Amino acid sequence: MSDPVNDLVSETEHRPTPTGSALGRSLDRPVDRRQVLKGMALQAALVAASQLFPGSRFPGLGTTAADAQESLPGVSWQKAPCRFCGTGCGLLIGVRDGRAVAVQGDPASPVNRGLACVKGYHSVQALYGEDRLKKAMVRKNGKLVEVPIGEALDLVAETMKKTIAEHGKDAVSIYGSGQWTIPDGYVANKWFKGGIGTNNVEANARVCMASAVTGFMTSFGLDEPMGCYEDMDHADTFVLWGNNMAEMHPVLFSRLLERKQKNPKKVRIIDVATRTTRTSLASDRSMLFVPQTDLALLNAICHEIIKNGWVHESFVENYVSISRGKTNIGYGLEDHFSFKDDPKPATWEELVEFLKDYTPEKVAELSGVPAAEIRYLASLYGDPERKVMSFWCMGFNQHSRGTWVNNLIYNVHLLVGKISTPGNSPFSLTGQPSACGTVREVGTLTHKLPHGVVTNEKDRKMAAEIWGVPVENIPAKPTYHTVEMFRALDRGDIKFMWVQVTNPMVTMPNLNRYREGAEKEGRFMVVSDVYPTPTTDVADVVLPSAMWIEQEGMFGNSERRTQHFDQILEPPGEAMSDTWQLIEVARRTGHGDLFPWSEEEHIEKIWEEYRRFHAGAKHNMAPYEVLRREPGVMWPYVDGESTRWRYNAQYDPACTQGPFDFYGKPDHKAVFWLRPYEPPAEVPDEEYPFWLNTGRVLEHWHTGSMTRRVPTLHRAMPHAYAELNPEDASRLGVRHGQRVRLVSRRGSLELPASVGGRGNPTPGQVFVPFFDEALLVNVLTLDSFCPISKEPDYKKCAVRVEKA
Amino acid sequence: MKGRRRYVVIALLVALMAAAVFVGGEILRQAAGGDAVTPEVTAESEVLARQEGQFSGLGGPPRRPERLGPVAGADPAVATAAGATGRSLEAFDERRAFPGAPPSIPHEVEAEMITGEACLGCHRYGGWTPKFEAFAPVTPHPQLVSCQQCHVARVEETVFRPNRFVRPDRPPIKQAALPGSPPPMPHGLRMRENCAACHAGPAAPSELRTDHPERVGCMQCHVPRETEPGETWARGQGR
């Protein structure tokens, strides 16, 4: 006779599967004996109950939204991905009387398994700030005045037509977002590139993930991680590079901590960063390095791997080719800066010779990380008994050599053959909820199409065919990346910009130039947002947008998981989804035939048209009905299954050879790039002796326009601050809470100092979060960028610190 | 020494030591105030002593104040059998944006309290914390150690912009079917496997406190209140 209780227990404990009951998940964690017994008793009761009363379900123990844990009077629950970070937690939204009133983590989601973070738990409160934009506004005589939305849409269309007629198609532009839903981005791309005929389409993911993209493209020929979150359940070594995972991807970090609890003797979490954070304190080891020397550290690790004979020789021989590119490649500080790399193949001997200078001793001098620590780190990567997962985010991407440093982390994994197998995973974490899903996969960047690039004739033909436009409409040349687009606006080469779901008047580096540029005469700014922001402050037209679950849509997270959400709430007042705003204006500019759908069906129709671009085993997207039903599925979605590990023939049906097939490159090999250390554009000197680093905090999303309006989050983190090392503070005579002035070559800013708070920079460094629109740190930062990805470096410039 | 005499001497020494410990302990206890161990609680309910005009965020520099005062929400009027303070359900709810939300931290979070182990020092087993003059509530999920990922402090009581969020009603408690019946659970069990964390002990809100914590098989009597919509079963109706 079968033993249902024990079967159930062992099944849920060891099966790495998306559908686990919450109780099964709770049994996965090490709990004390009494709890286990209680849990087993409950499971026994459940099994008995389910046999006696088939179909019975219990709150908190079911696997669908109908079985939500909290049973609140009058509240019904529906699934949605979280509005915030690139983790992509599944949530259950509690709705009563047409209002969102509560949140739970969705136990059915394999991403977070019922847990969320403070932002996710309070996310629905962000819908209800009192100054929510409900009406369209038009600037008349310098003041924003409410108008019916139809009138505003007419004005936008008229201005676009006029601008195009007088100054050409490339005088209009759109700046979107990694928080655009997939349909938002798809409509923008189709209209601008296929209809209007300009490549002036960019998104804020350019300043967030672009280096990750170019890293993928140069190393593998295809974008996005080859592994998935399930790697965390298999790896025993986690190396975090330059990212504060405990605050920025908290639920994923909790998965690491859970993994460590299960196997404390073996599992190691190493934090390699430029300042001490909560992540450092929760890790086994914290290593601090001088900004930008991550380039040298990664080369030193490769040096050690070769020296100690840890190279996976057969893997390298069969699956890795070697290239080198240009060096001394500049920083993009001049308008019209242009760069084209010139890759050349290299031999193994050249590789070894290249790494000769990156001995741990030499790199220790440069980076401040002791040689023994570098050797220890290398030994973790080199140890054949360890499965290693590397994580990185903005520290590597917002970097003037961002593409290079992404290449370098892949170099390490390729050298030891630790890639594309469960647990061995260089994992690029995404910041925004849909930078992958929308900007990267739909291609809302100047050079991209949903499949391929504008420079490729075949890709243009495919887009023309699916979009139903003449192929001549789609321009073959990219125009401007984000920084250049705002420079063009400043110069007057662009006269019209439509901004959606992002806040560039807070986030552009070297902000003063771009704010002044946007406010010049003859520039027409249209801004779609949910709350007034410094960007709506410079708008000529403000359009009220539906927020998140007030429209149907999809997001795509870091692990290639596309998640659908229904429209759960009505948007307030005249607020309208970004997708529908774009369609309404497109219909007015004569491009309505590109969007012939009704409001009821348009999202489904957009999805079915969009998925045609990605047909095939390398990128297939699931059908609409599957997305509606599941807590997200990963692409490639082939024969009803998500592909978890790409390039591995055992898991990836797109492989045509095995056991590994890096099919993104013509020779089916991944690339080891020879990339040197080069310093950043601006380093501390006598006049400006401090590094300025910028970033985020747990409580606030980006520029705070949503999260600051959530009372719990605001009360926990009310203002920005300048984080100082206690030694520096004491030398400057500054106590915690006292005001300091930061001055760079571009601007100055007064802020309260934070000494001994949750983060501790190294001496000679100051850290400022950017969520506070009253303390605009970007007046200090520099618009240098990686010449390959064009992503700005927000982490390194020079300031001086004075007691205010 | 030989044989039995040796054992007698050892036994006498042990008895002497035990007596010394007992007497010594009694002396110390008398010195600490004897039976009146439970401290008095003042009516003060604000934790942070704020100075005018000074930035009060982020825990400040590492320091150990003598007394941080009683925790906000500790209600001296609500007494327990031991004579110490207990929390009210109202205070319990006030810390949560909606039922089921992670409660905010009502006490100052010092720079040292940055890891889960620091929080668990008080919240794993509860007990009286002199620093905050309150009983620490026990966490029902000690296995989740990145505490501040969900639980954040209230550094200021200001508002950035007013918010119109409508709070849902909490599920009603004490919905026993008959007088004396065990009331059903109005909530689920995820992250709440340890009933005693909220329902037993001096930190439990008095309205929720069980009068029989020694019975550990809670779920033998207390079942979930609602599984499927619909209050009654009838033949032929649905399943």
Described by the principal axes of the CA atoms, the overall outline of chain B is extended
Helices and strands of chain B, in N-to-C order? HEEHHEEH
Strand content of chain A: 15-25%
Trace the largest sheet of chain A across and list its strands.
5-4-18-17-16-6-7
Across the major sheet of chain B, the strand order is 1-2
Helix content of chain B: 10-25%
Structure summary, number of beta strands of chain B: 4
* Low-pLDDT residue spans of chain A: 1-31, 42-66
Q: Segments of chain B where pLDDT lies below 50 for 5+ residues?
A: 36-69, 75-84
Largest sheet of chain A: 7 strands, mixed
Summed up, the helix count of chain A is 27
Mean pLDDT of chain A: 92
Our estimate of the beta-strand percent of chain B is: 5-15%
Most extensive interface, chain pair and sizes = A-B, 92 and 67 residues
Please state the average pLDDT score of chain B.
75
**DSSP, total strands of chain A:** 31
* Content-based structural category of chain B: alpha+beta
Kindly report how far apart the N and C termini of chain A lie: 78 Å
Distance between the termini of chain B: 83 Å
What's the multimeric state?
heterodimer
Which outline of chain A best applies? globular
